[in-house]
TrEMBL record:
Cross-referenced PANTHER family: NICOTINAMIDE-NUCLEOTIDE AMIDOHYDROLASE PNCC, NMN AMIDOHYDROLASE-LIKE PROTEIN YFAY
Keyword Amino-acid biosynthesis: no
All residue ranges annotated as the MoaB/Mog domain in the record: 4-171
UniProt KW keywords: Hydrolase
Group of enzyme by EC: hydrolase
Cross-referenced CDD domains: cinA
A Pfam short name: MoCF_biosynth
Gene Ontology molecular function, alphabetical: ADP-ribose diphosphatase activity; nicotinamide-nucleotide amidase activity
Gene3D superfamilies: MoaB/Mog-like domain
This protein's record includes keyword Nucleus: no
Official protein name in the record: ADP-ribose pyrophosphatase of COG1058 family / Nicotinamide-nucleotide amidase
Residue spans crossing the bilayer: none
Length: 206
């Protein structure tokens, strides 16, 4: 299975925030036998987002998108998903209750923009967010899996480890293809010398 990771957000595109989400997702997927074909960062621009959705869907079996699910005017991911899949947004009572509970625990008043976050694509399975207001979504179409997650790292990580990897394991039997990745740190040895010494080992692993 080939996967593409799409990270959305102007703040990441211009280097204001490091893209730790893609690194985390890539590590988890590869560790479970799923190859990463590409990882891209795009800004908060509808045309660019839809273009990447089309490209990803044509060339990959799994697409994971992070970012752009917040309540502000430049959070465009949901609108793009609706256009791309030709679906509509519907209010989820389950998500709305989750949002209300979070605001009650924090002692904050619920705003109309936060209530809007309870709307999800009609064709999607909901990935509940126990730490924030933006739910994740899981869509299957034409044998492909399209997953959208919030850009907040700790919210995204909880969904990856608690929902996505277990569901992928069950659906695709990725447990059989799990990879063990180990790092060997060296110092004072040129890369070219290491390559000559380790070349035979690398060939055996392919």
């Amino acid at each position: 299975m080939k996967a593409k990771i799409i990270t959305i957000g102007d703040e990441i595109l211009i280097g204001q925030i490091l893209n730790t989400n893609a690194a985390f997702i890539g590590e988890k997927l590869v560790g479970n036998g799923i190859d990463i074909s590409e990882s891209v960062v795009i800004g908060d621009d509808e045309e660019s987002i839809l273009k990447e959705f089309r490209n990803a869907f044509e060339n990959n079996e799994l697409i994971i998108v992070t970012g752009g699910l917040g309540p502000t005017h430049d959070d465009l991911t949901l609108d793009c998903i609706v256009k791309f899949f030709n679906t509509e947004l519907v209010e989820s009572e389950e998500v709305l209750n989750d949002i209300k509970n979070i605001f009650e625990k924090r002692g904050r008043k619920l705003t109309p923009s936060n209530i809007e976050q309870a709307k999800v694509p009609k064709i999607a399975d909901i990935i509940r967010n126990h730490s924030g207001t933006a739910p994740g979504t899981w869509i299957e179409k034409d044998g492909k899996i399209f997953i959208s997650l919030p850009g907040v790292p700790f919210e995204m990580k909880e969904m990856i480890t608690g929902y996505i990897i277990p569901r992928l394991s069950e659906k695709l039997s990725v447990e059989k293809n799990k990879r063990i990745i180990k790092s060997l740190l060296t110092t004072g040895i040129p890369e070219s010398f290491l390559y000559e010494r380790l070349g035979d080992i690398e060939e055996l692993l392919h």
